[in-house]
Amino acid sequence: MKVLIVEDSIFVQKLLTKLIVDHIPECEIQIANNGEQGYNLFKEFQPDFITTDLLMPGLNGQEMLRMIREKDSNVKIIILSADIQKTTRDEVEMLGISGFLNKPLTAEKATTMIQLIQAAYHAE
Fold first, then answer.
1. How many CA atoms lie within 13 A of 92 on its CB side?
2. pTM
3. Which segments does the entry list as coiled coil (predicted)?
4. Residue pair 53/61 in contact by the 8 Å Cβ criterion
5. Which has the higher per-residue pLDDT, 112 or 119?
6. Cα 90-93-96 angle, rounded to 5 deg
7. What is the rounded CA–CA span in Å between residue 49 and residue 75?
């Protein structure tokens, strides 16, 4: 399984990488620091799963998600963001996300994220 982490916080990048590798050791992970890098890596890496922040400099997560959906309607995407506006959440949910978790990442939210990734992994 291939996972793309799109996140501008190095701390969150490391936290998510450790979390995923600890639970799904055979997982291949790529990291992007912003939406533009994320979209380019998405095209190159062709991940099965993407976790992304929404609030990033340059191309934000929402714009990146729209661009990804134009190319691939099946890739699983989890949003992990501090943006808690209902309109934002409604918009990204209409683009077909697998989950939306609010930051900060707690133990309970981390468990939910791993369960979503594992469910997608075992569905293949």
1. 28
2. 0.93
3. none
4. yes
5. 112
6. 155
7. 6
